[in-house]
Amino acid sequence: MADPAPMLPGDASRPQIIYALVTRGPTLVLAEHAVAEGTFQQATMQILPRIEVTSEWKSYIYGDYAFHCLMEVSTGVWFVCMADRDMGRRLPFAMLSSLQESFNQWYAAPQIASASNLGMQLEFYGEIQACIEKYNAPDADRVASLSAKVRQVNDTLMDNIDKILERQDKIDVLVEPQPHAAPIRGGLQERGGGGAPQGVVA
């Protein structure tokens, strides 16, 4: 089991979205933003190649955390976030839907197809940060309730990550508050295997 979630920036009494990223397929990160430090970025990159490509909104539970995935099958763009498990699915997917809408307003298919690793980081990380902050805010549930599609989300329909991991796989999901709650602006330069992995939610 993962260690209990630490206190994070913002209202620490409520579950939070910790990390969000936009990828092309399961391995190329276009842009990302996190509100904490830890090994969860590496863990996410270990998990993504194992996830089935589907138009369904999928969630995977791992210890105290959940990974939520919204995929555009036609373009190959994935919108992914990691949040506290107790947050459920509605707010994370409301955030991912908002992120998807914003991304598609910023970029056309040729830009997406030709982008390099972290090629949209400088331009787009601020949008990711804004979406996370919006849906981590105290009134976020009211905002999410305005979306008809999000209202249909089953808040508890999540798969355990063990279903998609090989028996020998090890994943570490360590989350530590950042000093002074400073935002992570740069991308991870190394995305190799981390320590020891565990589970997912759909």
Strand content: 15-25%
Strand order of the largest sheet: 2-1-6-5-4-7
The secondary-structure element order is EEEHEEEHHHHHEE
Morphology call: globular
Individual helix count: 6
- Provide the low-confidence segments as ranges: 1-10, 180-202
Instruction: Give a short account of the largest sheet.
Output: 6 strands, mixed
First CA to last CA: what distance?
Answer: 18 Å
How would you characterize this protein structure?
It is a single chain. The chain contains six helices and eight strands, in the order E-E-E-H-E-E-E-H-H-H-H-H-E-E. It is an alpha+beta fold. The strands form two sheets. It has a six-stranded mixed β-sheet with strand order 2-1-6-5-4-7, with helices on both faces. Strands 3-8 form a two-stranded antiparallel sheet. Helix 2 runs antiparallel to helix 4.
Question: Which descriptors would you attach to this protein?
Answer:
alpha+beta; 6-stranded mixed beta sheet; 202 residues
In short:
The protein is built from 6 helices and 8 strands. It is α+β, with helices and mostly antiparallel strands.
What is this structure's SSE topology?
Elements: E1 17-24, E2 28-34, E3 36-38, H1 40-47, E4 58-62, E5 65-72, E6 77-84, H2 90-106, H3 109-114, H4 121-136, H5 140-144, H6 148-151, E7 159-160, E8 175-177
Parallel strand pairs: 4-7
Antiparallel strand pairs: 1-2, 1-6, 3-8, 4-5, 5-6
Helix pairs in contact: 2-4
